[in-house]
Amino acid sequence: MSDNRRKRKKKNNGQPGIKEIALLIVAAAFLLCAVILITKGIRKDRAEKETRRRNASSESSYDEEESMPEPTLTVSVEGETIPCLQQDDGLYVGFDECNAKVLHDGLILDEKNQQFFYTTLTEGKQKFPKADVPLMTKFGIEFIQLDWVAQNFFVQVEQEDAVTFHITPLEPEDESSVLKAKLPSQPISMFWFQDFTGGYDDDQKAAVKKTKGNANVMSPTWYSLQEDGTFKSLANKKWVKWAHKNDMQVWALVDNAFDSALTLEVLSDEEKREALIAYLLEQCQTLGLDGINLDFESLNEETAPYFIEF
After folding, report:
1. Which of 20, 118, 230, 288 yields a CA-CA distance of 20 to 30 A from 134?
2. Please, which residues have CB within 8 angstroms of residue 16's CB and are 6 or more apart in sequence?
């Protein structure tokens, strides 16, 4: 037995055994892991250094490019200056400031993954896709084109001199927010809706609905001048809601009862004339009218200047 062991030992002499091989494999694995970790550490360190270098370069560039320069123009709202920039396509003002100080409740909101500019100050709570709003981000500030704001929301912009502008904020009760200067996108095709009762029933709706596709503005005969200098009204808000649902605008017809003497008497009185204007504007706001169809007939030459003032 001892001879056999000696023979096997002699036979294996100079060659690694199983245990030695296992130890070599384990050592090699540890060495490989160490190499991999060291390599990753070196790469990570290099990446972090590169990132810091780029960030430093970016911050330096941002400081150089995105610092708001001293404005050469001054735009103010109620005496308070707001950011502004003169661009090739017009004057831009800070959106946040314009939104808060001028439009009051205009904002950008998401709706089904789309952004809209929205305000309740325009009749019908009008919305504009953000893509259609002339916005610009520069110097870390979002700007909006002032001409666009003025045209769409009737904001008054006064130029004091070559470099000074003043914006008059739009108040919710401002008459300019009541009457929108917005015509139908297609040519105007208007019909008179002769209304004697101010009613609203299915037969009337069926008759008016026949015009759909051929007309886009209905003008119901709702207001008529009275002897006391007021208007008789047959207005019915249900018609306005119905017309808007059917893609029609409503321009209420205002007549003078074909009475030239009465018209002269009322319109030549400044107090009565102003009262008529205030009443019609209030009706536009209350009913959501899109316009007024002024149908004063049988006027004489004497009435002309007062009618123009009205």
Report:
1. 288
2. 24
pLDDT at 176: 45
For residues 46 and 16, give the distance between their C-alpha atoms in angstroms, rounded to a whole number.
Answer: 42
Nearest alpha carbon to residue 242 among 287, 282, 175, 297:
287
Per the DSSP assignment, residues forming a β-bridge with 92 are 85, 145
DSSP string, 62-74: HHHHSSPPPPSSE
- Give the tens place of pLDDT for each residue, 183-205: 666 788 888 888 888 888 777 78
Burial class from Cβ neighbours inside 10 Å (0-12, 13-18, 19+) for residue 61 reads: exposed
Sign of CA dihedral 139, 141, 146, 151: positive
Q: Are 207 and 195 in contact (CB under 8 A)?
A: no
Q: How far is CA 172 from CA 75, 103, 111, 152, 277, in A?
A: 22, 9, 24, 15, 18
pTM score of the predicted model: 0.44
Per the CB < 8 A criterion, the answer to whether 216 and 244 are in contact is: no
DSSP-assigned states of every residue in 137-182: EETTEEEEEHHHHHHHH--EEEEEETTEEEEEPPPTT-GGGTS---
